[in-house]
């Protein structure tokens, strides 16, 4: 596939884009800084500028695409990961402006360019737990895609607005638009660096609902979305199968989630951030775990 990817130089993108290239896809990365990786083409684009996005959405990816003399090739899909990645980087109003306006611009340009698939990064923060003022517990466990999304911070608000934007563009244009509610992204080297502290003090993971997503498995999730057509508008939790702490599922519930309803029986190490929908509808199968590194 010929893919337009935004935010490829970010923490997730710099792993996911090379995975897509390794699968044989042609990728043009739109970002404020280029991704220096083999086989990746880059355009420097301010996604909050609609004109730049419209132009980039109908662009050659590289000089080699001029050689056939058959005109401008079209993109098959858009993967939109670019964003201000959390609160407390830019002022709240700027975080909200950039994240919502860039997503609107990308989706509008994609639809009007005739692209029939957009995959965009939403967030675990939409459930209101991560950046709450004080401790907020989920309404029930495990947290699935039907759980209420009632955030109170600029970043999470921008992501819930982006989901509404995706739903609206699907309603008008009928394209496949898949939102990924991505949990805390972990790079392979971070297991040895970060997870010993999580084992020592499990409370460090409460705001992430004790979950995580290995960036390589996030790449698999994107691949499964690209390969699965006809779902319309859908949102998916994206997480690994196990908890990010050494306590069992029952021990975490007893210590941190007393009184929180449990919707179904759960496995000994099963994540509280349910990924069953992605497994059932997309064939998503996470393959990595911190346990492979720290217990291996």
Automatic annotation (TrEMBL):
Record Pfam families: Epimerase
Domain of life according to the entry: Bacteria
Any coiled-coil regions, as ranges: none
Residue ranges of every copy of the NAD-dependent epimerase/dehydratase domain listed in the record: 3-237
Stored InterPro entries: Epimerase_deHydtase, NAD(P)-bd_dom_sf
Chain segments annotated as transmembrane: none
Name this polypeptide is given: Dehydratase
Lineage of producing organism: Bacteria, Pseudomonadati, Pseudomonadota, Alphaproteobacteria, Rhodobacterales
């Amino acid at each position: 596939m010929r893919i337009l990817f935004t935010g490829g130089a970010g923490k997730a993108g710099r792993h996911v884009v090379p995975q897509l290239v390794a699968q044989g896809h042609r990728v043009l990365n739109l970002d404020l800084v280029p991704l220096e990786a083999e086989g990746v083409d880059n355009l420097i684009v301010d996604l909050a500028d609609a004109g730049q996005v419209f132009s980039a959405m109908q662009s050659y990816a590289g000089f080699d695409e001029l050689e056939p003399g058959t005109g401008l090739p079209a993109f098959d899909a858009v993967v939109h990961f670019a964003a201000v990645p959390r609160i407390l980087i830019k002022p709240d109003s700027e975080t909200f402006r950039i994240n919502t306006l860039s997503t609107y611009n990308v989706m509008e340009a994609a639809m009007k360019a005739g692209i029939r698939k957009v995959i965009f990064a939403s967030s675990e923060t939409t459930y209101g737990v991560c950046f709450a003022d004080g401790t907020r517990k989920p309404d029930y466990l495990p947290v699935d895609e039907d759980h209420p999304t009632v955030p109170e911070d600029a970043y999470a608000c921008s992501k819930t607005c982006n989901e509404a934007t995706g739903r609206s563009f699907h309603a008008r244009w009928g394209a496949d638009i898949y939102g990924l509610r991505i949990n805390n992204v972990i790079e392979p080297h971070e297991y040895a660096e970060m997870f010993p502290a999580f084992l020592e003090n499990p409370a460090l993971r409460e705001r992430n609902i004790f979950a995580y997503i290995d960036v390589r498995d996030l790449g698999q999730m994107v691949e499964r979305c690209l390969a699965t057509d006809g779902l319309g508008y859908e949102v998916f939790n994206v997480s690994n199968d196990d908890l990010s702490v050494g306590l069992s599922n029952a021990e975490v519930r007893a210590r941190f989630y007393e009184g929180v309803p449990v919707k179904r029986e759960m496995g000994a190490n099963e994540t509280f951030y349910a990924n069953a929908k992605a497994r059932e509808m997309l064939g998503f199968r996470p393959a990595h775990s911190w346990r492979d590194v720290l217990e291996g």
